[in-house]
Specification:
Layout: E1 11-15, H1 20-31, E2 35-40, H2 43-55, E3 61-64, H3 70-84, E4 89-92, H4 114-142, E5 145-150, H5 153-156, H6 163-187, E6 191-198, H7 207-210, H8 219-226, H9 240-247, E7 258-261
Parallel strand pairs: 1-2, 1-4, 2-3, 4-5, 5-6, 6-7
Length: about 270
């Protein structure tokens, strides 16, 4: 493999690495020579992912970390530095959605749950901000650091129902671009910030919105497929190429972008 694309010996931290997409990235990047450190919400989740990858012959490290707790993020960042030295890449994959921050067709804004909305913004946006803040001193000290945030197609085109999720991911886009400029101007070209914006993937978080009890697609899922030129939902491995590129030195002059991986959804006007 061309050395620009090589991931060998790169130290990559993945928050939310215990989730469907996070564990897929952890597996792939480890298989391609990277040293992976997974952060999960609980010790049980982190240990389970570590064991699952060990069964595949992959050795990773795993730590519990609540990305919404600043002190915890700082402590984990220091533990990782003490144990593994400076890291090369931080992937902010922790995130999600919940009832209360969504508005069903039968509801209105008056039915929304303010506390649930705060929780989702705290998880998706503040959680991204806090992990970057926690690792930044180590990036500054080594004069290099590659940050990859996880956005969503709902950030660019707000989707019905998922109000809190769309708002928080739009904020992640803005943060990505703002920090890319901030870090390049203050610390030089060694610290980069980009994001990947997945299109529509079936996960445990959205399965009830997109599939019926028997597994058939809901009307919402059919509408998504009709507006995706490739005419299907994404598979977790569809994101691997974009992740590999952004983790590697092949993207060393790339900062401040939000890369869609969406089967053409963002390019389609519906006509």
């Amino acid at each position: 493999m061309n050395s620009l694309f090589s991931l060998k010996e790169k130290k990559i931290v993945i928050t939310g690495g215990t989730g469907v997409l996070g564990s897929e990235w952890a597996t792939y990047l480890s298989q391609n020579g990277a040293k992976i450190i997974v952060l999960g919400r609980t010790k049980e989740e982190a240990d389970t992912t570590k064991s699952q990858l060990a069964e595949k012959g992959l050795k990773i490290e795993a730590y519990p970390c609540d990305v919404t707790n600043e002190k915890t993020c700082i402590n984990v960042a220091q533990k990782i530095k003490n144990a593994h030295g400076n890291i090369d890449v931080l992937v902010n994959a922790a995130g999600g959605n919940m009832n209360g921050a969504t508005i069903t067709p039968e509801q209105s804004l008056l039915d929304s749950d303010t506390d649930a909305l705060r929780t989702i913004i705290n998880l998706n946006y503040i959680g991204t901000y806090l992990t970057i803040k926690a690792f930044l001193p180590h990036f500054i000290a080594s004069k290099k650091g590659n940050i990859i945030n996880i956005s969503s197609m709902s950030a660019e085109k707000p989707l019905t129902r998922v109000m809190g999720y769309s708002s928080s991911k739009a904020a992640v886009n803005n943060l990505t671009q703002w920090l890319a400029v901030e870090f390049a101007q203050k610390y030089g070209e060694g610290i980069r910030v980009n994001a990947i914006a997945p299109g529509f993937f079936l996960t445990e978080q959205n399965r009830t919105l997109l599939t019926n009890e028997g597994g058939s697609y809901t009307d919402r899922a059919k509408l998504i497929i009709d507006n995706t030129p490739m005419n299907r939902f994404g598979q977790p491995n569809d994101l691997l190429g974009a992740m590999h590129f952004l983790c590697s030195d092949a993207s060393k002059f790339v900062t401040g972008i939000v890369m869609p991986v969406d089967g053409g959804f963002s390019a389609f006007s519906g006509v």
